[in-house]
């Protein structure tokens, strides 16, 4: 058996991802800030200062660029840019513009996410995505981001994981305050249609700002695997939770594939993870092959015309050598898919930093740790290892 190193395709994105609310700190105008300070939810601790990346973004970018990464996906916070309905902050727009310019200065290509789970408190109070006029309000916000994304930004993500937004909306209607697990509950259909409409409206606004920007959105891929005889059950279970959102991207410039683990489906639905199987800090099954299945399934649904970008992939662990093992397995899957001809244009790990994982700081996904007292950035060996591939421009060796 021989092994082959797989070179990056021309222009391949190689980086790491973050989300504003999870790293910035003191995002006081967002709906999540309210949730974090409300009793009776699943939330274990509030975000508070987070990683203080609002002030220390340049340190984060310095570390990533110094390690060899060429791309950085980060989100801009709607609740900062439009803290009150119809009132846009020039100072916050200038802040995010400085981040774009800072990335470019360091040799990092910025991928901007316009919405990553959080919305302004005022938007949530008026009914969120399904309220009358919500699509137009989101489109207006996107148009207002022109000073941030109009130049130097080649890729824009409109909405991160819309299928999770629909799932969380469904849970809220049922009075369930827990964060969605693997084997997702039923999404709210009205929210599904609303976020699809918002995405399409946002694509138009971004293209009006700069037609050269490549626009897409990212899907949380649960890697639904059918047990023998459960293929039809699996397809029916998967469609409202995943495939409908993938299909909505058929006209986009790219689609983001985000995966961490798998969900096995039997005749009666999801099968619990077996006893004794290795689990991560999020209690998900350790399953590095997930990204390969997610890429191949997404390509089957959306077709070969839409390029794929892995916009999130990683593991919550406090054993960094295990993180390297996970990424080794995952990247072998990416390399194999590339060799099979899939149009994959990038890989961005989750996450650049240990961050606020929607209720707790305990699940550490980061390539970079940080001191909670001083906020000093502490790159892990996995960050050095993964960044080095950016210097060599090759993926791991895979069996021929």
From TrEMBL:
The active site is at residue 312. The keyword Hydrolase applies. Pfam families: Glyco_hydro_1. Its EC number is 3.2.1.-. Gene3D superfamilies: Glycosidases (3.20.20.80). This is Glycoside hydrolase family 1 protein. Signal peptide: none annotated. InterPro entries: GH, Glyco_hydro_1, Glyco_hydro_1_AS. Belongs to the glycosyl hydrolase 1 family. SUPFAM superfamilies: (Trans)glycosidases. GO terms for molecular function: hydrolase activity, acting on glycosyl bonds. The lineage of its organism: Bacteria, Bacillati, Actinomycetota, Actinomycetes, Kitasatosporales. Keywords: Glycosidase, Hydrolase.
């Amino acid at each position: 058996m021989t092994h082959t190193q797989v070179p990056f395709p021309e222009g391949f994105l190689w980086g790491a991802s973050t989300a504003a609310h999870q790293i910035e700190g003191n995002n006081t105008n967002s709906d999540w800030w309210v949730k974090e300070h409300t009793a009776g939810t699943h939330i274990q601790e509030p975000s508070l200062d987070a990683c203080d990346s609002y002030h220390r973004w340049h340190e984060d970018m310095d570390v990533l660029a110094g390690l060899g990464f060429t791309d950085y996906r980060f989100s801009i916070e709607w609740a900062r840019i439009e803290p009150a309905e119809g009132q846009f902050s020039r100072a916050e727009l200038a802040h995010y513009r400085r981040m774009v310019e800072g990335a470019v200065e360091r040799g990092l290509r910025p991928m901007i996410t316009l919405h990553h789970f959080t919305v302004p408190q005022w938007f949530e109070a008026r009914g969120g995505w399904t309220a009358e006029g919500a699509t137009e309000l989101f489109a207006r916000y996107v148009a207002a981001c022109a000073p941030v994304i109009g130049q130097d930004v080649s890729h824009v993500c409109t909405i991160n994981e819309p299928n999770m937004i629909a799932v969380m909306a469904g849970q809220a209607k049922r009075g369930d305050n827990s964060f969605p697990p693997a084997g997702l509950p039923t999404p709210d259909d009205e929210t599904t249609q609303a976020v699809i409409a918002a995405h399409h409206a946002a694509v138009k606004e971004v293209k009006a700002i700069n037609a050269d920007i490549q626009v897409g959105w990212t899907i949380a891929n649960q890697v639904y695997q059918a047990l023998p005889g459960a293929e039809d059950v699996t397809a029916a279970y998967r469609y409202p939770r995943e495939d409908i959102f993938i299909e909505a991207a058929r006209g986009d410039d790219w689609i983001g594939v985000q995966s961490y683990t798998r969900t096995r489906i039997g005749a009666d639905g999801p099968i619990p993870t077996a006893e004794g199987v290795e689990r991560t800090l999020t209690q998900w099954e350790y399953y590095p092959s997930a990204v390969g299945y997610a890429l191949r399934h997404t390509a089957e649904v959306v077709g070969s015309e839409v390029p794929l970008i892995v916009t999130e992939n990683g593991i919550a662990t406090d054993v960094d050598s295990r993180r390297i093992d996970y990424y080794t397995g995952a990247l072998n899957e990416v390399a194999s898919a590339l060799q099979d001809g899939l149009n994959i244009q990038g890989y961005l790990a989750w996450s650049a930093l240990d961050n606020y994982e929607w209720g707790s700081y305990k699940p550490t996904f980061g390539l970079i740790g940080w001191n909670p007292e001083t906020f000093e950035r502490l790159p892990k060996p996995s960050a050095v290892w993964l960044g080095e591939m950016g210097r060599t421009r090759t993926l791991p060796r895979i069996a021929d």
